Amino acid sequence: MSKTDHAPIHRAGSPRGFSLIELLVTIGIIVTLALVGTGIQGTMAEKAASAQDVAAGRTLISAYQAYAAENSGQLLVGYQKGAQPVTLPDGSQISGEAASRYVWRLAPYFDYSINGVLYSKARVRAQKESEDAGMKGYGESISVAYGINAYYVGGFVENGETSIPSGDVATSLLQVDKPSSLLVFATARSSQGSGHYLVKAPRFVPRAAGTGALSQPDWPQNGSAESTGNVDFRNGDKAMCVFLDGSIRSYKVAELTDMRLWSKNAARDDNPNYAPVLEGGSGGRGNR
């Protein structure tokens, strides 16, 4: 018998184990694909959340403009203590603090589709807050995707008076020279999480007459909700902002300290450091 007759025969399909190197390469590929998949999912989730914010912003500003058109150019008061109850299509009413906040008074202008303007992750919490408060619509009035710039647009009214001098508050379309520069809504959060009905400009407390301009405050990049006026920079470190002309733009923390985006008078004077002045020359409070 020849040597050839004793050669081992390798049949196709015979089982053969993986080498250590092959196993490590395979594991590496699987891990890489998993990381890529996670990154893609994260990006898709961020884009979906951003799209929801854009849709909510468009709904709110369209309703806000519709209210003004129906009321001879008057702008909806952002917060009105003791506002009249809002009657829903089913005959029930929203009253008390829930009706004081802008969203339910604006609701008739977007067909009461309240879920479309709530921050998506806060909807369950909103319902629980309503149940805990024993007040219909209470939680929903807080957990809006956007807070309103009520101190400078429409007004923040308690006991019949606004919190800043009346001349600083835009209450009518005719008072606004640059609608594209006047911020009405911004993505918002509270200390409990995302979604809030009110945002505050860097300066909403007036200074005393005759005093010098206040220095521009710095909003911390990762500060608390109150440290940035409840504005939520949740879209790639930017806040989604909706302006009176219907435009939607995004701004970083430092960019939103410019008072020309918040106040009609600041835009008129082209003064990024604008601060309201107390009427009557009475003593003022420090900026906060």
Automatic annotation (TrEMBL):
Record field: transmembrane: 20-40
Keywords linked to the UniProt accession: Membrane, Transmembrane, Transmembrane helix
Organism name: Terrimicrobium sacchariphilum
Domain of life: Bacteria
Protein name: Prepilin-type N-terminal cleavage/methylation domain-containing protein
Record-linked SUPFAM superfamilies: Pili subunits
InterPro entries assigned to the protein according to its UniProt record, in alphabetical order: N_methyl_site (IPR012902), Pilin-like (IPR045584)
Biased composition (Polar residues): 218-230
UniProt region (Disordered), positions on chain: 210-231, 268-288
